[in-house]
Amino acid sequence: MNHLTKTILLTMGALTSSGAYAANCAVTEVYLGGFSATACSGYGASGNPTAELNNLNAITAFNSPIYGTDIFQQVFRTNDTQNPGDADDSGSFNALGSSLNLSITDMGIDAGLNTFTLSWSDPDTINAPNLPYYIDLVFSFKAGNVNSDAGIAYFFFDNFLLTNNPFSTDGEYNLIVDKKLSHNGLYARAGKQPDSQIPGLPVPEPSSVALLGIGLLGFAAQQLRKKQQ
């Protein structure tokens, strides 16, 4: 038996032995504000709300010095058994000693392409305004049963900017397991503001900086010639 044949057989064995967890997530399954997820994990086991939150905080792919290491808070977790056909919900996230309100509306639960709207608001805009605010978000989707190559998958968005206007953005999901949702959830933690990005101020392009430098040099040379005349 040659090396290529062995490799093929081992690969086939790994695929068939994975059983209920054969479906692996892809970051392109979920978009928010026109951007795909930063990372994902699943599909796999799920349980009650506490178990799902604990599973999320144990995912090493979402924790690093770059992404952040703080634990996630559960903003909400819907339950389609109690609210048939309704995947919309809202909740609050504690930020900077105050709170931010987050909500999802117009989310479908059927298999295939679904769209939704993520909205946010700051209940205290006078004493301790929080917006704009960088936040790490995780969307969870429970599609089908774990024993049918589905389960729950988590989709992580790193440093998503909640602006102070507008207060919403569009999202979409199209799960590869192609099953109807059982429930979904939203989780959040504080993001890390990039050093080069200050909300409200444009970041100059390298070419713009270079042109500005050339212009200043030309102006200085012109002034020097005038003094020498």
Architecture overview:
It is a single chain. This protein has 229 residues and is α+β, with helices and mostly antiparallel strands. Helix content is 21%, strand content 34%. The strands form 2 sheets. A 6-stranded antiparallel beta sheet has the order 2-1-10-7-6-5, with no helix packed on it. It has a 5-stranded antiparallel beta sheet with strand order 3-9-8-11-4, with helices on one face. The N terminus is likely disordered.
Structural class: alpha+beta
Distance between the termini: 89 Å
Main sheet: strands, sense, barrel = 6 strands, antiparallel
Radius of gyration: 24 Å
User: What is the overall pLDDT average?
Assistant: 78
Count up the domains: 1
Number of helices: 3
Strand order of the largest sheet: 2-1-10-7-6-5
Dominant shape: globular
What's the quaternary structure here? single chain
Count the E strands.
11
Uncertain spans: 1-21, 198-204
- Overall helicity: 10-25%
Beta-strand content: 25-35%
Helix and strand element order? HEEEHEEEEEEEEH
Give me a quick take on this structure.
By secondary structure, the protein is of the alpha+beta class. It has helices at 3-17, 49-57, 206-228; strands spanning 30-32, 35-36, 39-44, 73-77, 89-95, 98-105, 114-121, 133-143, 151-162, 168-173, 181-190.
